[in-house]
Amino acid sequence: MAGKKVSIISLHEKKQRSQPICMITAYDYPSALAADRAGVDTILVGDSLAMVVLGHESTVQVTMDEMLHHCRAVRRGVQNAYLIGDMPFMSYQAERGEAIRNAGRFIKEAGMDAVKLEGGREVAGTVRAINDAGISVVGHIGFTPQSVAKLGGNRVQGKTAAAARRLYEDAQSLQEAGAVMLVLEMVPDRLAEYITCHLSIPTIGIGAGPACDGQVLVLHDMLGLFDRFTPRFVKKYADLGGEMQRALSAYREDVAERRFPAAEHTFSMEDAAWEEWMREMEPDKG
Ligand code: KIV
């Protein structure tokens, strides 16, 4: 495919030129191929994989090996987009050395350009350590799904002045620690704008209003492939779930009514070959 590989430098240049950055999640080869062909700047192999692909209740169940497996599939579908692998719950919180080694696996074994991890000042030391090991890190603050139980559900974060200050300081400490980009999830629009204006690294919003440097959506939400719930910030661009259901029902009915396979889906055998085969198998009938 034509085009140029997107780098962290080109993403930072987009912020400087006020050009919006487009990020989408993807989890497999065909979706990565489509996203790359659509020209999105960056693809996140999100730990939302746990819910939208693997059917778990939350993101915390997905493992390092599952994440790497899907990152490798995405890698094979992409030529240009900047690739980010999401570090799963408990792959970076317990111990810094383990965090560096796990981050390294995303780069070395799965061909990612960067890793993402959730949290504010409490993970700044880990972000710095991974960054010092030569690995780019994307931060993620606001609503952080790996802490859904602690946060008491899917809630907008930073709604009071004190909470806004905390988020702003978290953003600053992640930037100081070397984060190359920052995802802001479910943050009031004015606060997201303020943070965006006061950081030199790009902010990528999801439920954080239009003033962020870029936007990200979960692929299965925007394509209508995940119907357990749809957050208010999602814009649905297609109903592929409905399409899939219609196609599968039509297929089942066609098989039941012997409408499928039709002649055009069927292979035939030359008469001479068939007759020879019959003579061999059923000589008495000849
Ligand atoms: O895992 C994910 O899909 C994410 C996005 C919501 C940013 O972290």
In the predicted model, the low-confidence regions spanning at least 5 consecutive residues are none
Helix content: 40-55%
**Proportion of beta-strand residues:** 5-15%
What is the helix/strand order?
Answer: HEHEHHEHEHEHHEHEEHHH
Taking the alpha carbons of the first and last residues, their distance comes to: 59 Å
CATH architecture group name of the largest domain:
Alpha-Beta Barrel
CATH class call of the largest domain: Alpha Beta
Q: Would you identify the CATH H-level superfamily of the largest domain?
A: Phosphoenolpyruvate-binding domains
Distinct ligands, ions and cofactors found in the model: 3-methyl-2-oxobutanoic acid
Major sheet description: 8 strands, parallel, barrel
Total domain count: 2
Radius of gyration: 24 Å
| Sheet/helix structural class | alpha/beta
Question: How many beta strands in the DSSP annotation?
Answer: 8
Which term fits the overall shape?
Answer: elongated
